Amino acid sequence: MNFSELFRLSGLLGRFSPDGKCLASCVQYRLVVRDANTLQVLQLYTCLDQIQYIEWSSDSLFILCAMYKRGIVQVWSLEQPDWHCKIDEGSAGLVASCWSPDGRHILNTTEFHLRITVWSLCTKSVSYIKYPKACQQGIAFTKDGRYMAVAERRDCKDFISIFVCSDWQLLRHFDTETQDLFGIEWAPNGCVLAAWDTCLEYKVLLYSLDGRLLSAYQAYQWSLGIKSVAWSPSSQFLAIGSYDEKVRILNHVTWKKITEFEHPAIIANTKTVVYKEVEKSPSVETERLSFPPARALAGFLFSTQSKYDISQVPVPLQYVKPAADRANPKMGVGMLAFSPDNCFLATRNDNVPNAVWIWDVQKLKLCVVLEQLCAIQAFQWDPRQPRLALCTGNSKVYLWSPAGCMAVQVPMEGDFPIVSLSWHPNGDSMALLSKDNFCVCYLDREEV
Fold first, then answer.
1. pTM of the model
2. Is 152 left (phi over 0), alpha (psi -120 to 50) or beta?
């Protein structure tokens, strides 16, 4: 592995372009666009205020910068650096902004979710969508970019509207059997829309493109319900993470549960491999160094290194009992992600914050548990192969694949707590992000 130098960053705003050629990052009110391979600065843009959100257009030709405090969105062109666009929502305010799939329309959600405004960069026309619902995941596009679903709330009832993205015409409008709709997400094939209720009511509803209710699933009642939802890339499975520390898998034929994965505090199955992170002190003999090492190298040489040991089962994991008297308890399955080849599912149970569970989807059983020394901050699958990268808030990056796993210390001077990471679209590098800095990790061809 090779690592770039550290670059300044604010707001964890570092994004690779969809075509993989560029890397955009923000420093306060400046947007810096670099070449993804050489990290040479290609463009430097100055916005009107501190940038709070950035997003690339689907064709990688434009970048949207949202400044929610000012109610302003600025759009920059990579092909024509002199061209730029400013959208000011004025007194209506701004709480969210995103691109449409064609990369030529911008959807802005106003304060108090009064409306969504659709701005066209080509014709400068404006369309309005009324009554969008204030929820975690209220807008969803199909993968092919043809349709958009919007969660709505009117007259104290939940609705979903489906629009055609080419002309923003309403295709279907129907009410949902939810108490308080929390999120919607299309299956990758664009045929089924999943909608789920607030955590106070366990309910998942599956709708067809024409608004028909295909199935409703409820695992239990009178307890905290759904915490996370993820579709498999093949659209064959819907994984539902719940507050009861279980993941339930629904199949795409009958929409019934085919299995459920439990997350016990003790791993007892002898067929499960448990990798435990252990720290080892550096074994550098300083008197054998013919010269004093540079500060950056010294920090790298003398920092504690990590490696993985395979633990003998049964293995007790570090279990955290949630505080019963506080809101938003840290319990249940809060993170879910399928591998791109559909073979593995990675999960994190918030009661066991230091562990990542990797399930074999074909055999429907647990195959690997990674037990870290610190709490998992983020994990993400390589977009091209079954390889998982994760970070735990220290200056190390961890990789797992079916061949094994490894921990790599980022050779940086000073503190570099990695709290987020992002793979390059072709999987041969990734951006490692801390609150104030970022670097790019390049994987060797043999590793790729």
1. 0.93
2. beta
